[in-house]
Amino acid sequence: MQTTRQQKIERLIQKDLGDIFLGYTRTMHGVLISVSEVRISPDLSIAHIYLSIYPSNRQEEVMQLIEHDHGKIRGEMGTLERHQLRIIPELNFHLDPTLDKMERIDQLLHNS
């Protein structure tokens, strides 16, 4: 069971990372990155961020770029959240499989 504080921090992180990734989409033409979900540990030290990346054939490339810029992203987040959080959580990025599942279901329905 999550506390209200955890939920507020998750929404804050989701919004701020969305703004940060908006800058990424401007430099990587034809790519859309959205933060579909954020889960934070009870001690607020680790955040699991689930990303949806479109088109799916560029997911690996984008994830490598995000992992490479991990420190820069965390630093930008620290600048945005310096008044709300004392310690910026460690960020763990994961691909959200929902978009792929939706594409697969759509393909199956159109092929039947």
Task: Summarize, please.
The chain has helices at about 5-25, 60-70, 70-80, 100-110, and strands at about 30-40, 45-55, 90-95. By secondary structure, the chain is an alpha+beta fold.
Protein described:
Helix 1 (4-27) crosses helix 3. The protein is an alpha+beta fold and 112 residues long. It has four helices and three strands. 53% of the residues lie in helices and 21% in strands. The protein has a three-stranded mixed β-sheet with strand order 1-2-3. 15% of the residues are buried. The protein has helices at residues 4-27, 59-68, 70-80, 98-111; strands spanning 32-40, 46-54, 90-95. The chain has one domain: K homology (KH) domain (GMP Synthetase, Chain A, domain 3), CATH 3.30.300. A hairpin with a 5-residue loop joins strand 1 (32-40) and strand 2 (46-54).
Please give the count of helices.
4
Largest pleated sheet: 3 strands, mixed
Number of DSSP E strands: 3
Q: Regarding CATH, which class?
A: Alpha Beta
Across the major sheet, the strand order is 1-2-3
CATH architecture: 2-Layer Sandwich
**Unreliable stretches, pLDDT < 50, 5 or more residues?**
none
Give the mean pLDDT.
89
What integer value in Å does the Rg equal?
15 Å
Helix and strand sequence: HEEHHEH
Residue share in β-strands: 15-25%
Shape: globular
How is the quaternary structure best described?
Answer: single chain
- Kindly identify the CATH topology: GMP Synthetase, Chain A, domain 3
